[in-house]
Amino acid sequence: MKIEHFAMNVEEPLAMADWYVDHLGLEIVKQETEPPYMTFLTDDSGRVMIEIYQNPADQVPDYRNRDPLIMHLALVSEDPAADKKRLTEAGAQEMSDEILEDGSHLVMLRDPWGLAIQLCKRSTPMLREKEGG
């Protein structure tokens, strides 16, 4: 099995998708312009997606008031300090910035809709560069 996507019910999926494209470098793979505005975004690998939508069949979680340890979207960052500065200037809010004992740099932010985003620069990368590698 491989992960295809992780889905989240959010307040404003179209605006959120635009922000993720403009500021996180994600790419829209598929998007509906009518409710529930299902939008699939992928990173530059094109191998894993997140889906955001607004489905009134259930409530949008209160991301702003949830501890980021419950759920967060973690992204690889080559320069977490620079990315933190750029993203906070674009409306994100800093929650934490720490260097772990192994030298990994982890920054936790909230996007403009309150969803926790973690910027990760691991001392030893956890992802493989290529499939089977």
Describe the fold and architecture.
- The protein is of the alpha/beta class and 133 residues long.
- The chain is built from two helices and eight strands.
- The protein has helices at residues 13-24, 80-89; strands at residues 5-9, 27-31, 39-42, 49-53, 73-76, 93-99, 105-110, 116-121.
- A four-stranded mixed beta sheet has the order 1-4-3-2, with helices on one face.
- Strand 3 and strand 4 form a beta hairpin.
Strand and helix layout:
Blueprint: E1 5-9, H1 13-24, E2 27-31, E3 39-42, E4 49-53, E5 73-76, H2 80-89, E6 93-99, E7 105-110, E8 116-121
Q: pLDDT average, as an integer?
A: 94
Strand portion: 25-35%
Number of helices: 2
How do the SSEs run, as a string of H and E? EHEEEEHEEE
Distance between the termini: 17 Å
Largest sheet: 4 strands, mixed
Q: In order across it, which strands form the biggest sheet?
A: 1-4-3-2
SS content category: alpha/beta
From the spread of the alpha carbons, the general shape counts as: globular
Radius of gyration: 15 Å
> Which parts are unreliable, with pLDDT below 50 for 5 consecutive residues or more?
none
- Overall helicity: 10-25%
The count of DSSP E runs of length 2 or more, i.e. the number of strands, is 8
